[in-house]
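Why should sequence recovery work at all? Because a backbone constrains its sequence more than one might expect. Tight turns favour small or flexible residues, buried strands favour hydrophobic ones, and helices have their own preferences. The token representation captures these environments compactly. In the example below, the structure is given first.
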């Protein structure tokens, strides 16, 4: 519908720029979230390209060490807070009301505020990157996204901009999460009980609950940092009676659940995509809900596995090790449920399904390296090496970003009314996946061989693998230009998509021997019941 048509239909509804600025419409806000995330993905991706260009060979190529560290820091902050989290909120905004049979999100004005805090935060973050190049701008932020003191207390003005950006991002996440929780609890259409909700809604519910619990802790931690920097406190300064390790506990109490905040929306997308393209209902719905509760609870009590090397008591270390290994049980359960959903299904392999299957494989691999890292004596060896970098990129690209890609391809027909170009979609998938694996798989080996992470230069024996990794990164990075092209092409036109765009993917093509089971869950939200 064109802007003017929208304005005509709702009397006095703003059009043009005001439509977006003052929007309380979940679809428009969802669109803005997704576009913002896309812009941030390209920004963070450009930083990643700079990192890999610098690491293309030993020696300093294009930048000084402190600038390298700043780029590394902002790559992480932008990807996590700017790209992955807003994209997930965008999907939730678009799909939740339709899935639950609600007319809109529960708190539409709060929804508007949650979104518009994001560009402000991005402006602060980008300013912090420009400051070191200006006279009097201070030293760059070189702490990494973990912002550990004492370095974060000592760094320049850019750190204050970064801290304020995190405050705004946290506020945006908390408000957005409250909206998601209230929508799910209060806005379901009659008959839509909790246990009938699509799995995506369950995943978003737990994502939001996690954020409401942990984002304030991060906000508190960085506020204490701010006080140490400017107001003479010494929360994290041993000379004044404080303890820098305290910050690590505050940070990772947020930081570990944050991994699940990024992961769960992708799990939600997978539990929609896999049944649709397997033409079978989701296997073990109740077990998955139980698994989510298990995962949600455990993810809050395993944080110190990120800091085995700080000298915690052996008892505490063992506790965190055991809990971390236990958390692989609900994750394994999810993988099993996805495999059982595909088992003997009439599978077809459109782009969303290709992503879903590759995610199950690659994320399981990250699960295995994750268990390796959970084991204390082994982690003493791997800590702060490229093995960790390889591990969490296998967790966060398949486990979050690729899940979002799957969701975008799955729902683009719904959003735009057009089918995307399936052939280009498949080309993008293979280009993307090959580039990704070429980049990050070799990093396991340099890591095991002892190459430290967060370092601008390395010794010559790591040269070949780093060059391979950089070539992979350029293949991976450029693939996203095709993604952008596919999305724009789909928005601008293409084959018309009906109410149930994936129905055309007919069963029987893989030798289905029995009656087709009940329709895929897509039906549950294509015709939402009228609510008044
Ligand atoms: Cu963790």
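From this structural description, the recovered sequence reads:
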């Amino acid at each position: 519908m064109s802007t003017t048509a929208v304005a005509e239909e709702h009397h006095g509804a703003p059009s043009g720029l005001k439509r977006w600025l003052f929007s309380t419409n979940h679809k428009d806000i969802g669109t803005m979230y997704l576009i913002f995330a896309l812009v941030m993905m390209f920004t963070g991706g450009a930083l990643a390209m700079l990192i890999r260009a610098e690491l293309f060979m030993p020696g300093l190529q294009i930048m000084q060490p402190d600038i390298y560290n700043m780029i590394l820091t902002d790559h992480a902050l932008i990807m996590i807070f700017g790209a992955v989290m807003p994209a997930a909120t965008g999907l939730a905004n678009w799909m939740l009301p339709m899935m639950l049979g609600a007319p809109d999100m529960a708190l539409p004005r709060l929804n508007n505020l949650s979104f518009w805090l994001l560009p402000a935060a991005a402006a602060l973050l980008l300013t912090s990157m420009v400051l070191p190049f200006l006279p009097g701008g201070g030293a760059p932020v070189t702490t990494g996204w973990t912002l550990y003191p004492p370095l974060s207390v000592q760094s320049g003005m850019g750190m204050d901009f970064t801290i304020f950006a995190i405050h705004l991002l946290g506020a945006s996440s908390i408000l957005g999460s409250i909206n998601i929780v209230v929508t799910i609890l209060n806005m379901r259409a009659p008959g839509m009980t909790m246990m009938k909700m699509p799995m995506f809604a369950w995943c978003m519910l737990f994502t939001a609950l996690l954020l409401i619990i942990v984002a304030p802790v991060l906000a508190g931690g960085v506020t204490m940092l701010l006080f140490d920097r400017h107001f003479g406190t010494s929360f994290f300064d041993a000379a004044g009676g404080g303890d820098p390790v305290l910050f690590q506990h505050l940070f990772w109490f947020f930081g570990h659940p944050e991994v699940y905040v990024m992961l769960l929306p992708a799990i939600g997308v997978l539990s929609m995509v896999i049944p649709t393209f397997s033409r079978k209902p989701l296997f073990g719905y109740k077990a998955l809900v139980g698994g989510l509760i298990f995962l949600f609870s455990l993810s809050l009590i395993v944080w110190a596995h990120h800091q085995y090397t700080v000298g915690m008591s052996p008892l505490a270390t063992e506790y965190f090790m055991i809990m971390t290994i236990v958390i692989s049980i609900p994750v394994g359960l999810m993988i099993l449920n996805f495999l059982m959903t595909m088992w003997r299904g009439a599978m077809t392999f459109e782009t969303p399904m290709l992503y879903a299957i590759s995610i199950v494989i690659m994320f399981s691999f990250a699960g295995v390296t994750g268990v390796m890292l959970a084991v204390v004596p082994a982690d003493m060896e791997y800590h702060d090496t490229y093995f960790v970098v390889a591990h969490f990129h296998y967790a966060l690209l398949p486990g979050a970003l690729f899940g979002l890609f799957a969701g975008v391809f799955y729902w683009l027909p719904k959003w735009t009314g057009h089918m995307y170009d399936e052939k280009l979609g498949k080309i993008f998938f293979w280009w993307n996946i090959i580039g990704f694996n070429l980049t990050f798989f070799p990093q396991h080996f340099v890591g095991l061989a002892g190459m430290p992470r967060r370092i601008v230069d390395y010794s010559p024996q790591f040269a070949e693998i780093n060059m391979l990794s950089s070539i992979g990164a350029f293949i991976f990075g450029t693939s996203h230009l095709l993604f952008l092209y596919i999305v724009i092409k789909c928005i601008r036109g293409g084959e018309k998509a009906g109410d149930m765009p994936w129905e055309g993917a007919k069963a029987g093509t893989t030798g289905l021997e029995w009656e087709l089971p009940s329709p895929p869950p897509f039906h549950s939200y294509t015709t939402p019941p009228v609510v008044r």
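A few observations help interpret the result. DSSP finds 18 helices and no strands in the chain.
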